[in-house]
Design a protein that fits this description.
Elements (H helix, E strand, L loop, with lengths): L1 H8 L9 H11 L5 H9 L2 H11 L13 H8 L1 H16 L10 H21 L5 H10 L2 H9 L1 H14 L3 H9 L3 H11 L4 H8 L12 H18 L4 H5 L4 H7 L5 H20 L8
Amino acid sequence: MEKAKEMVVGIKELSSLPAVYHQVRGVLDNADSSIIDLANVVSVDAAITARLLHVVNSVYFGLMSRVDTVSRAVSILGMQQVHDIVLATSVSAMFKGMSPANMNMTRFWSNSVMRALIARTGAEMVRAGELERFFVAGLLSDLGHLVMYEVEPKLAEQAQMLSVQSGRPLHELERELLGCDYAEVGAALVDKWHLPPRLGAAIAGQIEPALADELYRRDAAMLNLARIMTDAMEQKMESEAIAELFDESIWTLSGLKPANVATIRLIAEMNHGEVVTLFFPQLRPAG
């Protein structure tokens, strides 16, 4: 884990999230805070307010009437869900300028959104609650690779190439070549940002969810499902074949069943294009 922390420290652009996010976090951490307090904090930042209202009014959320104020958004969605949307929009804006030479950023963020949608859809199917928490976890789950390709691009690419050539798990090769894997680096970044511990635990545990802290195993299992499904979908695998890729423990921990894969895939693919546009309008369509 020390090597992962060293990598994160090496990128100045990622030193901290925008001030407005930390203010939002402070409101949620204060038991005496109200909807009005949260709305006041968000409204001070015009860019975050615009992105929040844009997301809330999208077809993805499917609200019956237009939301034109932050206070109404908070009253409809709830404080936790607004927090999660603010976090997602803050991260998407923060990474806008980063583009490691050896990484296709359009593909990276497209896949990150797919992981987010799969994790959220899976959580919704098992009624896990706090759905946007799973969306944010999925969106951030591969940030470790972005850090790796920024700090150690040659070794990160070498690990990827060797994994493809040999069939060995990528995380094993990353540990050998870089001293840590993408899950550890992602968790170190989340810890540096002082995000909720549950988020970091899920990201850290996504490779082997059964070994994660018991409180966070479902979250980690959803991220494991999202990662494997996204990679397999990119290879044009059929849903039945994708379902066979998972260890039985993933179904036990997540509460899902192999038969759910096709439905999760359909819903995620249906929403993917719109959500990419919502959070990453700067991206050019892949192709």
